[in-house]
Specification:
2 domains, 280 residues, Rossmann fold, Hypothetical Protein Tm841, Chain: A,domain 3, alpha/beta, 6-stranded mixed β-sheet
């Protein structure tokens, strides 16, 4: 039996984790000096509630400890798993995978690590495919290979609510998101762990149009067509997410439109008002 683990940067919806018995290891998010565990004692609504007109919180994120991964692996082994598939945020973006490497040496079972090369719901896309493959009888290496294949076929575009946070995060070095925001609304693209400014537009309708056009031009990873996952941070980004959903639903090349929340470990680098999509 193969147990599957992801980190909370995956933004994995609870129902998806429960469906496939996936264990989610939380990242630590510090808000104004108080540390909380993402998805355990800090959810998206509470996180964005710290942002007010008069206060922008100081937010920092850190990877789970090796001990947290040992606990997750042990939980799955106690459930009857004999092998572990551990799927995570890009090594280039976080120390999370290194913690998992250290934990792998502390458990008495095979642990196969997958560097998705991406972040946020992209991790869930990889784990989802792997979990379906495991349910259909795939062995550990086959499931890991499918997760890695899905990782290579992912693409995302998004609009950030607080552009300067992207530049400060260190994840988009040289992209100049804050500078692009001086000329309008930057639509940011990410393929793998590489960021770029896809275009700069004058209003949110134009941003939606650019993101929809970019998504529809992507090559589907499955024979049934494109799947699109639309992310919403908070109430201020809901209208844009709704517009994306309306524009993509019913398109002939779209097989499915999904929804997810942009939680604390991603919102720390994008702020409230962020909306975007993954396409695969």
């Amino acid at each position: 039996m193969i147990g599957i683990v992801v980190d909370s940067n995956s933004q994995m919806p609870r129902e998806l984790a429960e469906r496939h018995q996936i264990v989610v290891v939380p990242l630590t998010v510090s808000v104004d000096g108080v540390e909380r565990l993402e998805g355990v004692d800090l959810d998206a609504d509470e996180f964005y509630g710290f942002w007010t007109e008069d206060h922008e919180p100081k937010v920092e994120t850190s990877q789970p400890s090796p001990g947290a991964f040992v606990a997750a692996y042990t939980e799955l082994l106690e459930r009857g798993a004999t092998e572990i598939l551990s799927i995570h945020i890009a090594d280039a973006m976080s120390g999370t995978l290194n913690s998992a490497r250290l934990a792998r040496e502390m458990v008495d079972a095979p642990v196969r690590l997958v560097d998705t090369g991406t972040a946020s719901f992209g991790i869930s896309c990889c784990a989802w495919l792997a979990a379906e493959a495991v349910a259909a009888g795939a062995d550990l290496e086959r499931a890991a290979a499918l997760a890695e294949t899905r990782a290579a076929g992912l693409h995302t575009t998004f609009v950030v609510g607080v552009p300067r946070l992207m530049d400060r995060s260190g994840r988009a070095v040289g992209v100049g998101v804050e500078g692009a925001a001086e000329d309008g609304i930057p639509v940011i693209a990410m393929t793998g762990s590489d960021f770029s400014v896809l275009t700069t537009v004058t209003d949110l309708d134009a941003a939606v149009g650019a993101m929809v056009d970019d998504a529809l031009a992507w090559t589907p990873s499955g024979r049934d067509g494109l799947k699109v996952a639309i992310g919403t941070s908070d109430a201020s980004s809901a209208p844009m997410s709704a517009a994306l959903t309306q524009a993509l639903t019913g398109e002939a090349s779209i097989a499915e439109v999904l929804q997810y929340r942009i939680g604390p470990s991603v919102g720390a680098h994008t702020g409230p008002g962020t909306s975007g999509l993954f396409v695969f």
